[in-house]
Amino acid sequence: MNALMQPPASESNVPRTQDERDLLHYAGRLERPTKVKTPELERSGRLRHVIFSGQFSVELLEELGGVADAIRLISKHRAGQDFLINLLHHKRAMLYFTQPSTRTFLSFMAACQILGITCNEVRDASTSSETKGETRFDSIRMFSSYFDLIVMRSPLARLAESCAYLMNDLERSGSRSVPIINAGSGADEHPTQALLDIYTLQRTFSFAGPNDSAHTSRFEDLRRLPGCENLTKGLDGKTYAFCGDIGRGRTVRSLAMLLANYENVRLVFIAPDHPSLVMREDLRQRLEARNVRFYEFDSFEQQLDGRPVIEQLDALYMTRIQKEHDTAADSEHSAAIDFSRYCLSPELVGRMKPYAPILHPFPRDQHFGEIPPEIDDDPRAMYFRQARNGMWVRAALLAHVFDVDGQIMRYFHGNFGV
Ligand code: CP
Predict the structure, then answer these.
(1) 193 in contact with ligand 1, CB cutoff 6 A
(2) What global pTM score does this model have?
(3) Does residue 386's CB lie within 6 angstroms of at least one atom of ligand 1?
(4) Nearest Cα to 143, choosing from 117, 113, 176?
(5) Is 238 a catalytic residue?
(6) For the chain, what is the radius of gyration of the CA atoms?
(7) pLDDT digits over 266-319, tens only?
(8) Pick the catalytic residue: 103, 284, 286, 380?
Protein backbone atom coordinates (compact mmCIF):
# COMPACT_ATOMS: atom_id res chain seq x y z
CA MET A 1 0.00 0.00 0.00
CA ASN A 2 1.15 3.53 -0.76
CA ALA A 3 2.37 5.06 2.50
CA LEU A 4 0.15 8.07 1.80
CA MET A 5 -3.01 5.96 2.03
CA GLN A 6 -2.22 5.52 5.71
CA PRO A 7 -3.43 7.98 8.32
CA PRO A 8 -0.87 10.58 9.42
CA ALA A 9 2.06 8.99 11.19
CA SER A 10 1.93 9.15 14.96
CA GLU A 11 4.91 9.97 17.16
CA SER A 12 5.65 6.26 17.48
CA ASN A 13 5.46 5.92 13.71
CA VAL A 14 8.09 8.36 12.52
CA PRO A 15 7.17 9.94 9.14
CA ARG A 16 9.50 9.00 6.33
CA THR A 17 8.53 11.31 3.51
CA GLN A 18 7.95 15.07 3.33
CA ASP A 19 4.29 14.38 2.42
CA GLU A 20 3.94 12.42 5.69
CA ARG A 21 5.68 15.19 7.62
CA ASP A 22 3.34 17.74 6.01
CA LEU A 23 0.31 15.69 7.06
CA LEU A 24 1.66 15.34 10.58
CA HIS A 25 1.94 19.12 10.68
CA TYR A 26 -1.87 19.29 10.38
CA ALA A 27 -2.63 16.30 12.66
CA GLY A 28 -3.66 18.44 15.63
CA ARG A 29 -6.17 20.36 13.49
CA LEU A 30 -7.46 17.22 11.77
CA GLU A 31 -8.35 15.52 15.03
CA ARG A 32 -10.65 18.28 16.32
CA PRO A 33 -14.45 17.76 16.42
CA THR A 34 -16.31 18.71 13.24
CA LYS A 35 -18.18 21.51 15.04
CA VAL A 36 -14.88 23.20 15.91
CA LYS A 37 -13.45 22.85 12.42
CA THR A 38 -16.51 23.97 10.44
CA PRO A 39 -16.19 27.76 11.02
CA GLU A 40 -12.61 27.68 9.69
CA LEU A 41 -13.92 26.32 6.40
CA GLU A 42 -16.37 29.22 5.94
CA ARG A 43 -16.10 32.91 5.03
CA SER A 44 -18.86 35.45 5.71
CA GLY A 45 -21.48 32.78 6.34
CA ARG A 46 -20.83 30.75 3.20
CA LEU A 47 -18.69 27.71 2.49
CA ARG A 48 -15.14 28.54 1.47
CA HIS A 49 -13.73 24.98 1.47
CA VAL A 50 -15.97 21.90 1.09
CA ILE A 51 -14.32 19.05 2.96
CA PHE A 52 -16.87 16.92 4.83
CA SER A 53 -20.62 16.44 4.73
CA GLY A 54 -20.96 17.75 8.29
CA GLN A 55 -20.60 21.26 6.81
CA PHE A 56 -24.08 21.04 5.24
CA SER A 57 -27.00 21.97 7.48
CA VAL A 58 -30.56 21.11 6.42
CA GLU A 59 -31.09 24.82 5.65
CA LEU A 60 -28.02 24.92 3.40
CA LEU A 61 -29.10 21.68 1.68
CA GLU A 62 -32.51 23.21 0.96
CA GLU A 63 -30.86 26.39 -0.33
CA LEU A 64 -28.45 24.48 -2.60
CA GLY A 65 -31.31 22.29 -3.85
CA GLY A 66 -33.24 25.46 -4.75
CA VAL A 67 -30.27 26.93 -6.62
CA ALA A 68 -29.72 23.60 -8.43
CA ASP A 69 -33.39 23.59 -9.50
CA ALA A 70 -33.04 27.17 -10.73
CA ILE A 71 -29.87 26.38 -12.75
CA ARG A 72 -31.55 23.28 -14.19
CA LEU A 73 -34.60 25.21 -15.37
CA ILE A 74 -32.66 28.29 -16.54
CA SER A 75 -30.42 25.97 -18.61
CA LYS A 76 -33.39 24.79 -20.68
CA HIS A 77 -33.29 28.05 -22.65
CA ARG A 78 -30.52 29.56 -24.77
CA ALA A 79 -30.86 32.98 -23.10
CA GLY A 80 -30.58 31.29 -19.71
CA GLN A 81 -27.47 29.37 -20.77
CA ASP A 82 -25.93 32.65 -21.93
CA PHE A 83 -26.74 34.27 -18.59
CA LEU A 84 -25.19 31.40 -16.59
CA ILE A 85 -22.05 31.09 -18.69
CA ASN A 86 -21.20 34.74 -18.10
CA LEU A 87 -21.38 34.54 -14.32
CA LEU A 88 -17.91 33.10 -13.63
CA HIS A 89 -16.09 33.30 -16.96
CA HIS A 90 -13.24 35.12 -15.19
CA LYS A 91 -12.53 32.06 -12.96
CA ARG A 92 -10.28 29.05 -13.54
CA ALA A 93 -10.51 25.65 -11.81
CA MET A 94 -7.97 22.86 -11.37
CA LEU A 95 -9.43 19.36 -11.28
CA TYR A 96 -6.71 17.37 -9.47
CA PHE A 97 -7.91 13.76 -9.55
CA THR A 98 -5.18 11.26 -8.70
CA GLN A 99 -7.73 8.48 -8.18
CA PRO A 100 -9.97 7.19 -11.00
CA SER A 101 -13.30 8.93 -11.55
CA THR A 102 -15.93 9.22 -14.26
CA ARG A 103 -18.96 10.97 -12.73
CA THR A 104 -17.36 13.28 -10.19
CA PHE A 105 -14.69 14.51 -12.58
CA LEU A 106 -17.01 14.98 -15.56
CA SER A 107 -19.89 16.48 -13.60
CA PHE A 108 -17.57 19.02 -11.95
CA MET A 109 -16.19 19.85 -15.37
CA ALA A 110 -19.71 20.21 -16.81
CA ALA A 111 -20.77 22.28 -13.77
CA CYS A 112 -17.80 24.60 -14.34
CA GLN A 113 -18.72 24.88 -18.03
CA ILE A 114 -22.34 25.80 -17.19
CA LEU A 115 -21.05 28.76 -15.15
CA GLY A 116 -18.30 29.69 -17.61
CA ILE A 117 -15.38 28.55 -15.40
CA THR A 118 -12.35 27.40 -17.40
CA CYS A 119 -11.04 23.97 -16.28
CA ASN A 120 -7.70 22.27 -16.36
CA GLU A 121 -6.82 18.87 -14.99
CA VAL A 122 -4.19 16.59 -13.52
CA ARG A 123 -5.57 13.05 -13.51
CA ASP A 124 -2.38 11.08 -13.24
CA ALA A 125 0.41 12.19 -10.91
CA SER A 126 2.89 10.37 -13.18
CA THR A 127 2.40 13.18 -15.71
CA SER A 128 3.16 15.84 -13.11
CA SER A 129 6.36 16.84 -11.37
CA GLU A 130 5.40 14.62 -8.43
CA THR A 131 7.42 11.98 -10.31
CA LYS A 132 10.48 14.23 -9.71
CA GLY A 133 9.87 14.20 -5.97
CA GLU A 134 7.50 17.16 -5.65
CA THR A 135 5.17 16.80 -2.67
CA ARG A 136 1.39 16.92 -2.95
CA PHE A 137 1.40 20.04 -0.81
CA ASP A 138 3.81 21.82 -3.16
CA SER A 139 1.63 20.71 -6.10
CA ILE A 140 -1.47 22.15 -4.46
CA ARG A 141 0.27 25.42 -3.65
CA MET A 142 1.41 25.66 -7.28
CA PHE A 143 -2.15 25.07 -8.51
CA SER A 144 -3.30 27.91 -6.27
CA SER A 145 -0.89 30.20 -8.15
CA TYR A 146 -2.66 29.60 -11.45
CA PHE A 147 -6.26 28.73 -10.57
CA ASP A 148 -9.11 30.15 -8.47
CA LEU A 149 -10.43 26.79 -7.20
CA ILE A 150 -9.01 23.31 -6.63
CA VAL A 151 -11.33 20.30 -6.83
CA MET A 152 -9.38 17.26 -5.65
CA ARG A 153 -9.80 13.50 -5.35
CA SER A 154 -7.11 11.49 -3.63
CA PRO A 155 -6.64 7.98 -2.22
CA LEU A 156 -5.31 9.69 0.88
CA ALA A 157 -7.88 10.33 3.61
CA ARG A 158 -7.52 13.84 5.06
CA LEU A 159 -5.36 15.25 2.25
CA ALA A 160 -8.13 17.61 1.08
CA GLU A 161 -8.75 18.79 4.63
CA SER A 162 -5.03 19.37 5.22
CA CYS A 163 -4.86 21.36 1.96
CA ALA A 164 -7.75 23.54 3.18
CA TYR A 165 -5.68 24.34 6.30
CA LEU A 166 -2.66 25.03 4.08
CA MET A 167 -4.81 27.54 2.13
CA ASN A 168 -6.01 29.14 5.37
CA ASP A 169 -2.42 29.51 6.58
CA LEU A 170 -1.47 31.12 3.26
CA GLU A 171 -4.43 33.49 3.53
CA ARG A 172 -3.40 34.50 7.05
CA SER A 173 0.11 35.27 5.85
CA GLY A 174 -1.24 37.43 3.02
CA SER A 175 -0.37 34.91 0.29
CA ARG A 176 -2.61 33.72 -2.48
CA SER A 177 -5.18 31.18 -1.31
CA VAL A 178 -8.09 29.48 -3.10
CA PRO A 179 -11.06 27.27 -2.10
CA ILE A 180 -10.55 23.50 -1.90
CA ILE A 181 -13.37 21.08 -2.74
CA ASN A 182 -13.03 17.46 -1.63
CA ALA A 183 -14.15 15.21 -4.51
CA GLY A 184 -13.44 12.00 -2.53
CA SER A 185 -10.72 11.36 0.02
CA GLY A 186 -9.65 7.78 0.66
CA ALA A 187 -12.28 5.75 2.54
CA ASP A 188 -13.08 8.87 4.49
CA GLU A 189 -15.59 11.26 2.88
CA HIS A 190 -17.20 12.16 -0.44
CA PRO A 191 -19.26 15.20 0.55
CA THR A 192 -20.40 16.31 -2.91
CA GLN A 193 -21.67 12.78 -3.65
CA ALA A 194 -23.75 13.03 -0.47
CA LEU A 195 -24.93 16.44 -1.66
CA LEU A 196 -26.17 15.03 -4.97
CA ASP A 197 -27.74 12.05 -3.17
CA ILE A 198 -29.68 14.46 -0.95
CA TYR A 199 -30.69 16.57 -3.98
CA THR A 200 -31.99 13.39 -5.65
CA LEU A 201 -33.98 12.53 -2.52
CA GLN A 202 -35.30 16.12 -2.32
CA ARG A 203 -36.51 15.88 -5.92
CA THR A 204 -37.95 12.39 -5.48
CA PHE A 205 -39.78 13.19 -2.25
CA SER A 206 -41.20 16.45 -3.64
CA PHE A 207 -43.27 14.09 -5.86
CA ALA A 208 -43.34 16.73 -8.61
CA GLY A 209 -44.62 15.59 -11.98
CA PRO A 210 -42.77 15.92 -15.30
CA ASN A 211 -41.16 19.36 -15.80
CA ASP A 212 -41.43 19.96 -12.04
CA SER A 213 -45.19 20.36 -12.31
CA ALA A 214 -47.17 20.30 -9.05
CA HIS A 215 -50.34 19.75 -11.14
CA THR A 216 -49.24 16.36 -12.46
CA SER A 217 -47.83 15.12 -9.15
CA ARG A 218 -48.42 11.45 -8.24
CA PHE A 219 -48.49 12.27 -4.56
CA GLU A 220 -52.25 12.02 -3.94
CA ASP A 221 -52.53 8.87 -6.07
CA LEU A 222 -49.72 7.25 -4.13
CA ARG A 223 -51.35 8.07 -0.80
CA ARG A 224 -54.44 6.11 -1.87
CA LEU A 225 -52.37 2.91 -2.26
CA PRO A 226 -52.39 0.33 0.55
CA GLY A 227 -49.52 0.96 2.98
CA CYS A 228 -48.87 4.50 1.64
CA GLU A 229 -51.59 6.36 3.56
CA ASN A 230 -49.03 8.08 5.80
CA LEU A 231 -46.69 9.11 2.99
CA THR A 232 -45.37 12.65 3.42
CA LYS A 233 -43.33 14.98 1.23
CA GLY A 234 -39.71 15.72 2.16
CA LEU A 235 -36.92 13.70 3.75
CA ASP A 236 -38.13 13.71 7.37
CA GLY A 237 -39.71 10.65 8.96
CA LYS A 238 -38.46 8.13 6.39
CA THR A 239 -36.54 4.85 6.53
CA TYR A 240 -33.35 4.81 4.44
CA ALA A 241 -31.55 1.53 3.77
CA PHE A 242 -27.95 1.16 2.62
CA CYS A 243 -26.82 -2.19 1.18
CA GLY A 244 -23.42 -3.63 0.31
CA ASP A 245 -20.01 -2.39 1.36
CA ILE A 246 -20.96 -0.31 4.38
CA GLY A 247 -17.49 -0.40 5.98
CA ARG A 248 -15.46 0.92 3.06
CA GLY A 249 -18.06 3.06 1.32
CA ARG A 250 -17.16 6.72 1.79
CA THR A 251 -20.42 7.74 0.08
CA VAL A 252 -22.39 5.78 2.70
CA ARG A 253 -20.52 7.50 5.52
CA SER A 254 -21.10 10.98 4.08
CA LEU A 255 -24.78 10.42 3.23
CA ALA A 256 -25.61 8.72 6.55
CA MET A 257 -24.27 11.75 8.41
CA LEU A 258 -26.33 14.11 6.25
CA LEU A 259 -29.52 12.08 6.73
CA ALA A 260 -28.86 12.25 10.48
CA ASN A 261 -29.74 15.97 10.18
CA TYR A 262 -33.36 15.18 9.32
CA GLU A 263 -36.19 14.64 11.81
CA ASN A 264 -37.26 11.19 12.84
CA VAL A 265 -35.34 9.19 10.22
CA ARG A 266 -34.32 5.55 10.53
CA LEU A 267 -31.18 4.19 8.86
CA VAL A 268 -30.79 0.49 8.04
CA PHE A 269 -27.36 -0.85 7.08
CA ILE A 270 -27.47 -4.21 5.25
CA ALA A 271 -24.06 -5.84 4.83
CA PRO A 272 -22.51 -9.30 4.84
CA ASP A 273 -21.17 -10.33 8.21
CA HIS A 274 -17.58 -9.54 7.29
CA PRO A 275 -15.24 -7.34 9.35
CA SER A 276 -14.37 -5.04 6.43
CA LEU A 277 -17.92 -4.68 5.13
CA VAL A 278 -19.98 -3.94 8.25
CA MET A 279 -20.32 -0.46 9.69
CA ARG A 280 -17.16 1.00 11.19
CA GLU A 281 -17.11 1.89 14.84
CA ASP A 282 -16.57 5.60 14.23
CA LEU A 283 -19.76 5.93 12.16
CA ARG A 284 -21.65 3.88 14.77
CA GLN A 285 -20.46 6.25 17.48
CA ARG A 286 -21.30 9.36 15.46
CA LEU A 287 -24.84 8.13 14.79
CA GLU A 288 -25.32 7.21 18.45
CA ALA A 289 -24.07 10.64 19.49
CA ARG A 290 -26.76 12.17 17.23
CA ASN A 291 -29.48 9.87 18.68
CA VAL A 292 -30.24 8.50 15.21
CA ARG A 293 -32.22 5.25 15.14
CA PHE A 294 -30.21 2.76 13.10
CA TYR A 295 -30.24 -0.99 12.51
CA GLU A 296 -27.50 -3.34 11.29
CA PHE A 297 -28.91 -6.23 9.23
CA ASP A 298 -27.33 -8.91 7.07
CA SER A 299 -30.28 -9.51 4.75
CA PHE A 300 -33.18 -7.79 2.93
CA GLU A 301 -35.41 -10.33 4.66
CA GLN A 302 -34.62 -9.30 8.21
CA GLN A 303 -37.69 -7.95 9.97
CA LEU A 304 -38.38 -4.28 10.64
CA ASP A 305 -41.72 -3.47 12.27
CA GLY A 306 -42.76 -7.10 11.75
CA ARG A 307 -42.11 -7.21 7.99
CA PRO A 308 -39.04 -7.86 5.77
CA VAL A 309 -37.04 -4.63 5.54
CA ILE A 310 -37.17 -4.68 1.70
CA GLU A 311 -40.92 -3.99 2.02
CA GLN A 312 -40.52 -1.29 4.64
CA LEU A 313 -37.85 1.04 3.29
CA ASP A 314 -38.63 4.44 1.74
CA ALA A 315 -35.34 4.62 -0.19
CA LEU A 316 -32.63 2.09 -0.98
CA TYR A 317 -28.98 3.05 -1.48
CA MET A 318 -27.08 0.19 -3.13
CA THR A 319 -23.28 0.09 -3.18
CA ARG A 320 -20.54 -1.87 -4.86
CA ILE A 321 -18.39 -4.30 -2.86
CA GLN A 322 -14.97 -2.64 -3.15
CA LYS A 323 -12.92 -5.78 -3.68
CA GLU A 324 -9.93 -3.74 -4.82
CA HIS A 325 -9.33 -2.93 -1.14
CA ASP A 326 -9.44 -6.60 -0.03
CA THR A 327 -6.53 -7.90 2.01
CA ALA A 328 -5.58 -11.60 1.90
CA ALA A 329 -7.56 -12.10 5.13
CA ASP A 330 -10.59 -10.33 3.60
CA SER A 331 -10.54 -12.66 0.59
CA GLU A 332 -10.34 -15.71 2.84
CA HIS A 333 -13.25 -14.48 4.97
CA SER A 334 -15.30 -13.69 1.82
CA ALA A 335 -15.12 -17.27 0.55
CA ALA A 336 -17.90 -18.38 2.93
CA ILE A 337 -20.28 -15.51 2.10
CA ASP A 338 -23.21 -15.75 -0.31
CA PHE A 339 -22.88 -12.31 -1.92
CA SER A 340 -25.93 -12.85 -4.15
CA ARG A 341 -28.02 -11.92 -1.09
CA TYR A 342 -26.73 -8.35 -1.52
CA CYS A 343 -27.81 -8.02 -5.15
CA LEU A 344 -31.18 -6.66 -6.23
CA SER A 345 -33.50 -8.66 -8.47
CA PRO A 346 -36.76 -7.72 -10.22
CA GLU A 347 -38.53 -9.89 -7.63
CA LEU A 348 -37.05 -7.91 -4.72
CA VAL A 349 -37.80 -4.58 -6.43
CA GLY A 350 -41.38 -5.77 -6.94
CA ARG A 351 -41.75 -6.00 -3.16
CA MET A 352 -40.51 -2.44 -2.51
CA LYS A 353 -42.87 0.47 -1.85
CA PRO A 354 -44.18 1.88 -5.15
CA TYR A 355 -42.40 5.21 -4.73
CA ALA A 356 -39.14 4.07 -3.05
CA PRO A 357 -36.16 5.29 -5.12
CA ILE A 358 -33.20 3.01 -5.79
CA LEU A 359 -29.97 4.97 -5.64
CA HIS A 360 -26.37 3.94 -6.27
CA PRO A 361 -23.36 6.26 -6.38
CA PHE A 362 -22.00 4.21 -9.30
CA PRO A 363 -19.97 2.67 -10.78
CA ARG A 364 -21.96 -0.54 -10.39
CA ASP A 365 -20.00 -3.75 -10.78
CA GLN A 366 -21.11 -5.74 -13.82
CA HIS A 367 -19.42 -8.87 -12.41
CA PHE A 368 -20.93 -8.60 -8.93
CA GLY A 369 -24.32 -7.50 -10.29
CA GLU A 370 -25.64 -5.54 -7.29
CA ILE A 371 -28.13 -3.85 -9.66
CA PRO A 372 -28.78 -5.92 -12.79
CA PRO A 373 -29.67 -3.89 -15.91
CA GLU A 374 -33.22 -5.39 -16.00
CA ILE A 375 -34.06 -2.96 -13.20
CA ASP A 376 -32.96 0.15 -15.11
CA ASP A 377 -36.39 0.73 -16.69
CA ASP A 378 -38.22 0.63 -13.37
CA PRO A 379 -39.42 4.18 -12.55
CA ARG A 380 -37.85 3.80 -9.10
CA ALA A 381 -34.37 3.28 -10.60
CA MET A 382 -32.92 6.70 -9.91
CA TYR A 383 -29.18 6.16 -10.46
CA PHE A 384 -28.82 7.73 -13.91
CA ARG A 385 -30.91 10.74 -12.89
CA GLN A 386 -28.88 10.84 -9.68
CA ALA A 387 -25.66 11.21 -11.72
CA ARG A 388 -27.19 14.06 -13.80
CA ASN A 389 -28.38 15.71 -10.59
CA GLY A 390 -24.72 15.78 -9.60
CA MET A 391 -23.99 18.25 -12.37
CA TRP A 392 -26.79 20.62 -11.31
CA VAL A 393 -26.05 20.56 -7.61
CA ARG A 394 -22.29 20.86 -8.12
CA ALA A 395 -22.98 23.94 -10.27
CA ALA A 396 -25.11 25.25 -7.38
CA LEU A 397 -22.24 24.58 -4.96
CA LEU A 398 -19.76 26.46 -7.17
CA ALA A 399 -22.25 29.34 -7.43
CA HIS A 400 -22.48 29.36 -3.62
CA VAL A 401 -18.69 29.30 -3.12
CA PHE A 402 -18.21 32.17 -5.59
CA ASP A 403 -21.22 34.11 -4.29
CA VAL A 404 -23.24 34.28 -7.51
CA ASP A 405 -26.16 32.18 -6.22
CA GLY A 406 -28.10 35.37 -5.37
CA GLN A 407 -27.82 36.55 -8.99
CA ILE A 408 -29.06 33.16 -10.21
CA MET A 409 -32.09 33.24 -7.92
CA ARG A 410 -32.94 36.82 -8.94
CA TYR A 411 -32.75 35.85 -12.63
CA PHE A 412 -34.87 32.78 -11.94
CA HIS A 413 -37.59 34.66 -10.05
CA GLY A 414 -37.55 37.47 -12.63
CA ASN A 415 -37.84 35.20 -15.66
CA PHE A 416 -39.81 32.24 -14.40
CA GLY A 417 -42.29 34.12 -12.22
CA VAL A 418 -41.77 31.87 -9.18
N1 CP B 1 -19.88 8.23 -7.65
C2 CP B 1 -18.62 8.53 -7.99
O3 CP B 1 -17.87 9.13 -7.21
O4 CP B 1 -18.28 8.11 -9.24
P5 CP B 1 -16.84 8.29 -9.89
O6 CP B 1 -15.89 7.48 -9.06
O7 CP B 1 -16.99 7.80 -11.29
O8 CP B 1 -16.49 9.75 -9.81
Answers:
(1) yes
(2) 0.94
(3) no
(4) 176
(5) no
(6) 22
(7) 999 999 999 999 999 999 999 999 999 999 999 999 999 999 999 999 999 999
(8) 103
